[in-house]
Amino acid sequence: MSALQPCCAHAEMVKCVQADGKTVYQSTPCPVGASSKTIAEPVFVAAQKVSMTPDSAGHFHAHLSINDVEVEGLIDTGAPRVTMSAATAKSMSISSKGAKLVPARPGSGNVPTYNTMVNMLKIGGIALYNVDIAVVENSPTVIGMSALSRFKITQENGQMILEKR
Fold it and tell me: Among 100, 138, 162, 164, which has the highest number of CB atoms less than 10 A from its own CB?
């Protein structure tokens, strides 16, 4: 179970669509040749938190949302990036177009892995922009450090607390 506690300050984000069609979000002006649009929705920059209670096995889970599709993901500070199955990625309209095919790790078999970036990902409703993810056939949804590194992670009274930096 997670609880969202938004707070205070707002920052402006700019959506940049580059000449090759790639979209990125940033807090600075777009480079020359890219179209830009200021995002009207507020982006919280202080004290936005998600609190999680562990399951019966002691694992922490959070709600992960991409393209308005929400799934539950396992928090894993040892995982380098957010990882999901091809089926989950498809349900979230994540395209493999432009994704980088990465060789399988030794011992993992011959399972193709595609690394790509999503423009916006939400964890417990907290928006993160330009997040690297890996799509691996039949993988569980794991929330790794490509997203978690953007949070201060603490534990208090048995709960894990993610606080956006």
Answer: 162
Residue 108, pLDDT > 50, answer yes
Q: How many CB atoms lie within 10 A of CB 19?
A: 10
Tokens of 153: 């992670």
> For residue 115, what are the CA distances in angstroms to 12, 66, 78, 153?
28, 16, 17, 25
Task: Write down the pLDDT at residue 104.
Answer: 59
How far is 16 from 3, CA to CA, in rounded Å?
Answer: 31
Helix or strand (DSSP H, E) at 136: strand 126-136
Helix (H, G, I), strand (E, B) or coil at 143: strand
What's the 3-state SS for 3-46?
Answer: EEECCCCEECCEEEECCCCCEEEECCCCCCCCEEEECCCCEECC
pLDDT band at 107 (very low <50, low <70, confident <90, very high): low
Give the pLDDT confidence of 113-154 residue by residue, as tens digits: 889 999 999 998 899 999 999 998 888 999 999 999 999 999
